[in-house]
Amino acid sequence: MKLYCLSSDAAKPCFVLSFKELLIMLDCGLSAHSVLNFLPLPPVPSTRLASLPTYTPPHINDPLLEGELKECCGRVFVDSVPEFCPPLDKVVDFSQLDVILISNYTCMMALPFITEETGFKGQVYATEPTLQIGRFYLEELSEWLSEGGATGEGGPGARRWKELVHLLPPPLAQAVRPRAWRRLFSAAALARSLARVRVVGYDERVDLYGALDATAVSSGFCLGSANWVLRSAHEKVAYVSGSSTLTTHPRPINQAALRGADLLVLAALTQTPAHNPDHMLGDLCVHAALTLRSGGSVLLPVYPSGVLYDLLECLSAHLEGAGLGGVPLYVISPVADASLAYSNILAEWVSGGKQARVALPEEPFPHAALARAGRLRHAKALHHLPDFRQPCVVFAGHPSLRFGAAVHLLELWASNPAHAVIFTEPDFPYVEALAPFQPLAMKAFHCPIDTSLNYSQANKLVRELRPRELALPEQYAAGGGAGRPHVGADVPTVVVKRGAAKAATVRRRAARGTLCGTLAARAVPREVAGGSGGLRAAPLAAELRVRDARVELVAPPAPARAAPLHWSSPDVEALVRALAREGGGPHATHVFCEGRPDVRQALRRALAACLPHV
């Protein structure tokens, strides 16, 4: 059993497990940190961004580099369409993948890079909310970038800077493998990729080519999020990714199904271990209320699902209690309507409290009631809101501030100190996200809300699950300096890093096979002399076949007479008598063959005569 790591971002994992002659990909997260090196792609032309000065490295006169780099407040950016860092494609041949198992919608953004134009012929499994909300994420991203011609492989793009990256100032100089960065896939490739996904429910067993059973169990992180359990007849592997033990809107984590695994693979822990989600939510509400009271508006760069539902519920209630119930709430996204509507038909995937509201009947989330009351409005784009009122609260993407409606709003409000931008998504460092908008007069608050397991919770979970072996990314292992949080366990631990493969100590001890009907009918078991519990055995001549991970014993092409099968320990007194009959001395203690075949044959006959056989 081997585990390959194809991602450098532990929060957006991508592993490949070689198990029972199958190659199983566990998640296909897309690292988007690379987009922070690019200038924003505004939905409407920006005079400020267009007038930024061009940057040229000292002592470099390269006409091919001209116009590719621009400078803003001492920071150098690439003036081109943003690019992403997909999983490594040289370690494992994607055309040889048998299965892709997706744990949640934040870890499937690289799926088209894996399945399209790679020769992929395998199967993809995810829960229904993971597929649908993942579709919202991907379609939103695709639409934003397609407006700027930033999808697909064609069209202009800055490339020369990648050859000279070592000569550029930081942080661009520290860019990891920029030549492997790629533009977002086309809308057609996205549609083809999502069409491959097969929907599964919690606790539903999926047969993987007869070799394994895969079961998705609730992870408690977000709607439809799942941990995966892989079982063969004699081994068990648990994949824990993006899990939470907190009480929020998803169904709680199912720990019982994960216990006693031979190998536990742990990924996607919190990206903000020093920030408590409850405290951050409280701080957000306070900052928003103070900003609104002073006449300013609030911008929250968010994804179109997930924490957005909790923010709408908590912030609307807080503003109502603070006497700000008349402040309008706006959700601006190409998929806003579909996302908000879809969340209220997922009764089987939410927590018990939310399910109880459905039985009343009421919507599990309050945003439908907010919309009916006129407090919440949603639109595909800002210009679809002709009566846009301020002060207000706007939820818009993208959290990186490199594309989407949030870019336009930040350009409009950046010079006004009455307004505020509040960062809640943990995927991007907020200082780097704001870098191309400097100097910034509006207030900026960092309130990251990440409900994934923190390190203390992860250590407790590992102790309770009691796996025989633990595998985790190098970012979670000890050794990063004193005081650095890490996952520690009193079981053998396999640490994997990007581009590497590590063998697990789990060894296949046995395999389950079937006996063909012909051989079963031919066998005549007899009770074994001296056996306990009525043990019966029969000699068997068979051919072993292994095909598609299935083991089968079939009749050999030409029936052969089975030789007697000897077993157990010899009867010493019977052995002495048999040796005497073969000519051995009655008082001798050694028999010397000296290369004589007749002596070896005599010893064989003597042993066979005193051993039980069938």
From TrEMBL:
Keywords assigned by UniProt, alphabetized: Cytoplasm, Nucleus
Q: Which Pfam families match?
A: Beta-Casp
Q: Output a single Gene Ontology CC term carried by this record.
A: integrator complex
Q: Does the keyword Cytoplasm apply?
A: yes
**Where do the Beta-Casp domain residues begin and end?**
308-434
| A single GO BP | snRNA 3'-end processing
Keyword Nucleus found: yes
Protein name per its UniProtKB record: Beta-Casp domain-containing protein
- TM helices/strands, residue ranges: none
Chief localisation class: cytoplasm
Location in the cell: Cytoplasm; Nucleus
Give the signal peptide, or none: none
